[in-house]
TrEMBL record:
InterPro entries: Ig_VWA7, VWA7. This is VWA7 Ig-like domain-containing protein. Transmembrane segments: none annotated. Residues 112-207 form the VWA7 Ig-like domain.
């Protein structure tokens, strides 16, 4: 595999992007893992890619780099256990390729996963449209109900246009230190958000401005995402 820049892909993978999938097996003694198959919505095998076993410290891990040609698929892995028996494992999640890329704005000087009781936090997210011109709608939610607003709430993006989406959160004054809220940012093709095109998941933690060492401790936002290669 040719080495290059590796970056994480948030939400759904992009159409035409090379994806790197790593596999770890738990509770089964593996002799060999032969291939990864993309399975269509109707259960038909679409295309198959060879899987490579890691070396040395990573010999119990497997990886495969591939460019999906299908827009919607599930993943099926085929291999053999140490008794020589064939096994197959299917991940039930239906993956959908898209044209809208979401990424955190790391140039934002206030970038942090920390939110303070009684104060607001603004997260900046770059929304890039790599496909045809389209109108996109934005919203967000979180399990602790800190979400306040998105700005803008919608936008028209031409091909390769990028829009900066600002997601505002507000923690109540009685918010307990150390609790974490899962924030989900959603991009849709319609205003009732029934035609999802991509999403982003972030974890925001309530923090104290002054740590035990007397300094303000801020760390980066954690992301739930794919891994892609450029």
């Amino acid at each position: 595999m040719e080495r290059g820049t590796t970056r994480r892909v948030v939400g759904n993978p992009l159409r035409g992007q090379t994806l790197l999938l790593t596999l770890d097996f738990v509770g089964q003694e593996i002799d060999a893992v032969s291939n990864l198959t993309l399975v269509g919505v109707d259960g038909t095998d679409l295309e198959t890619f060879n899987i490579t076993q890691g070396e040395g410290f990573y010999q119990n891990s497997y990886y495969v780099a591939f460019i999906p040609s299908s827009d919607r698929f599930r993943l099926k892995v085929t291999g053999f256990d140490r008794s020589g028996a064939l096994f197959q494992r299917v991940k039930p999640t239906l993956f959908t390729l898209g044209d809208v890329k979401l990424s955190q704005n790391v140039d934002n000087s206030s970038f942090s996963n920390a939110i303070f009781p009684g104060e607001s936090l603004e997260l900046e997210i770059n929304v890039k449209n790599t496909g045809d011109p389209q109108t996109l709608y934005f919203t967000a939610s979180d399990d602790l109900k800190y979400f306040n607003s998105t700005n803008p709430s919608q936008g028209i993006l031409e091909k390769n246009d990028t829009l900066v989406l600002r997601v505002s959160l507000l923690a109540p004054g009685h918010a307990a230190y150390g609790v974490t809220s899962t924030v989900t940012v959603v991009v849709s093709q319609n205003s009732d958000f029934t035609q999802l095109v991509n999403f982003m998941v972030l974890f925001v933690t309530v923090a104290s401005k002054v740590s035990e060492t007397g300094t303000t401790g801020l760390t980066g936002i954690k992301l739930k995402e794919w891994i892609g290669l450029e």
